[in-house]
Amino acid sequence: MPRANPTYAAPPPPASGQDHRRVVVVGGGLVGLTLALDMARQGIAVTLLDEEDSVSTGSRAICFAKRTLEIFGRLGLGARMLEKGVTWKTGRVFDGDRQAYEFDLLPEAGHEYPAFVNLQQYYVEEWLVEACAAAGVELRWRHAVTDIAPDTTGATLAVATPGGTYTLRADWLLACDGARSFIRRSLGLAFQGQVFRDRFLIADVVITGDVAFPAERWFWFDPPFHPGQSVLLHKQPDDIWRIDFQLGWDADPEVETQPARVRARVAEMLGPLVPFDLEWVSIYTFRCRRLDRFVHGRVIFAGDSAHQVSPFGARGGNGGVQDADNLAWKLAAILRGEAGPGLLDSYEAERIAAAEENILHSTRATDFITPKTPAARAYRDAVLDLAEGHAFARAMVNSGRLSRPAVLADSPLNAPDDGPWPGGAVPGTPAPDAPVLRDGRPDWLLRHLGGDFSLLVFDAVWTPVPGLRPVYVTAEDTPGALWDHAGLAAARYGAPPGGAVLIRPDQHIAARFAAPRPDAVRAALAAFTRETVA
């Protein structure tokens, strides 16, 4: 486990009777740190409070999806995650002791980032702490919020530290304090959704000898070493393997987490000739639920404080990072005076839709993994029997449909196509990546998008619009442009020659123009400020 143990520091003396900050993030986990870093890189002063003084323990979120890696690439951490993490794209599903089928999560080439990288959450959090400190985020460790009084212009917090309690005034409070959120409970906000009657055991296991398992996702229904239940296996860095055992609702958490009992389960799975050590053990229950609203005046929820899903599918951490990606640029635009608070309506609309999609897929996976009736069990068993020989049945197997980015198709910020567009990624879609050449050197398209509004222009000369950065993509090598030498950029965007695509700061497509006119582009760009600037 990495060394990151942030150091407590007493709060600075306030300039007047009360400590006051413009933006306060509560929660120094994966989502809170990502949000603080993103806003700091956009020039917004951020103070982050966390009641702990260390990064998370155990693997927790380990599967970082392609879209999340692209976000971290924009924030300067993507290459580090690729270097340390275990890259994979193949999954296998087993029924008993036979393989039902395998699948490829990224069948096409030409992307900087793979389908998934397995990496323990504590590594990512350590690197985020370092990046936040370098970006000027004020990190306050062992500062626990003990009371909150929100009002129309912000919130007043009581904060307890080892040196005593103080009062902190926040113009904007971003609640990223997790599934047991103190902020959420203090405001009396309840989750809507389900808690499923089943229990699962996580075991992080260190295996230093030869092992037959490759760097793939393996999922067993009713394996011989754990009959009647399910098991999930993932490889992590440092010779650590993540194993999830389904236990059933009647399992006693205190008994099942006893080291001797866990070791017996793992030994039954790995066999007597594979030596191993236990790194971390935990019990969890499936939860698929969310808040009714994410924005409550000047208090905004993101990540597990706003929504929860079952771990199978890697939707929790990835969804939370994408919350941060969506929120950071919008709040930054408001604070810079470029938009009014109404822009946050789109954060709520877009991320609630994304949470609903994740909850839907997680609920369906849970129902398939843990059938509740004899009829549901018979259906599952029949699907698994058919999956080995029939492709149509494989689409019906749900061992945790893996995280995919939300397509914000119904976003109020999307503009209709201006002129005929032959196909490709639609408005609301995360911008597709593609290999390009810049001045003869290999490069990637997404490295040139995000952080501000940009216009992706294909084989055309563009009349500049204030506040909009042009990115030129050409079919032939052209000085100052990105050369689409493989033709993948134009193909993935479906771009006709002379077409242009408006890209948001979070790298989502906002509008497409078959023959861009400055007035049409300005009108689409105005959607981000129209009726929102105070």
Describe what you observe in this structure.
Strand 5 (90-95) and strand 6 form a beta hairpin. The chain folds into 3 domains: 19-84 and 110-190 and 287-355, FAD/NAD(P)-binding domain (3-Layer(bba) Sandwich), CATH 3.50.50; 200-284, 2-Layer Sandwich (Alpha-Beta Plaits), CATH 3.30.70; 435-526, Glutaredoxin (3-Layer(aba) Sandwich), CATH 3.40.30. With 534 residues, it is of the alpha+beta class. It is 27% helix and 28% strand. The protein has 13 helices and 28 strands. The chain is globular, with a radius of gyration of 24 Å.
User: Would you state the CATH class of the largest domain?
Assistant: Alpha Beta
CATH superfamily of the largest domain: FAD/NAD(P)-binding domain
Percent range for β-strand residues: 25-35%
Q: Termini, distance in Å?
A: 48 Å
Computed CA radius of gyration, to the nearest angstrom: 24 Å
**Backbone shape:** globular
Number of domains: 3
The percent range for helix content is 25-40%
Task: Point out poorly predicted stretches.
Answer: none
- Going by CATH, the architecture of the largest domain would be 3-Layer(bba) Sandwich
Structural class, by secondary structure, is alpha+beta
Number of strands: 28
Question: What's the layout of helices and strands?
Answer:
Layout (H helix, E strand, L loop, with lengths): L18 E8 L3 H12 L4 E5 L12 E3 H9 L3 H7 L1 E3 L1 E6 L2 E7 L11 E3 L2 H15 L2 E4 L2 E8 L2 E8 L2 E12 L6 H5 L4 E5 L4 E7 L10 E5 L8 E7 L3 E7 L6 H4 L2 H12 L6 E8 L2 E5 L3 E2 L2 E3 L5 E2 L7 H20 L8 H26 L4 H14 L3 H4 L40 E4 L2 E4 L9 E5 L10 E6 L7 E2 L4 H6 L6 E4 L5 E5 L4 H9 L8
Parallel strand pairs: 1-2, 1-11, 2-8, 5-14, 11-20, 24-25, 25-26
Antiparallel strand pairs: 3-7, 4-7, 5-6, 9-10, 10-11, 12-18, 13-16, 13-17, 14-15, 15-16, 18-21, 19-20, 22-23, 22-26, 24-27, 27-28
Helix pairs in contact: 1-4, 1-8, 2-3, 8-9
